[in-house]
């Protein structure tokens, strides 16, 4: 993340990984596509635990990482992590 403690687009929100991948209102269509794809991989709504790769299922962890990378690429935010 960048040095500012606040999201560059949402001044009242902290600039955290959780805000970026779970709550970020910018690029809504990409965000919805990410959550839809993640939900298709597992039976629950994605949480930060899923993004931290805590799963012992390496195939699931790799797919989650790939989807997250695609989201960050599509929204030009890969440089923020
Ligand atoms: Zn924001």
Features:
single chain, 81 residues, mainly alpha, 4 helices, 52% helix, globular, binds zinc ion
Write the layout of secondary structure elements.
Blueprint: H1 17-23, H2 28-41, H3 48-51, H4 58-74
Helix pairs in contact: 2-4
Residues 7, 9-10, 13, 19, 24 line the site of zinc ion.
Describe the protein.
- By secondary structure, the protein is mostly helical.
- It has one domain.
- It contains four helices and no strands.
- It has helices spanning 17-23, 28-41, 48-51, 58-74.
- Helix 2 packs antiparallel against helix 4.
- The longest helix has 17 residues, at 58-74.
- The mean pLDDT is 84.
- The structure holds zinc ion.
- The site of zinc ion (ZN) has 6 residues, from loops.
Put the structure in a nutshell.
Helix content is 52%, strand content 0%.
* Total of DSSP H or I helical runs spanning 4+ residues: 4
Measured by DSSP, the beta-strand proportion falls in under 5%
Look at the helices and sheets and give the structural class.
Answer: mainly alpha
Poorly predicted residue ranges:
none
The largest pleated sheet is described as: none
Radius of gyration: 13 Å
Q: What is the N-to-C succession of helices and strands?
A: HHHH
Using the alpha-carbon principal axes, give the shape.
globular
Query: What is the mean pLDDT?
Result: 84
Question: How many structural domains does the protein architecture include?
Answer: 1
Bound molecules: zinc ion
Helical content (DSSP H or I, runs of 4+): 40-55%
Total DSSP E strands: 0
Distance between the termini: 5 Å
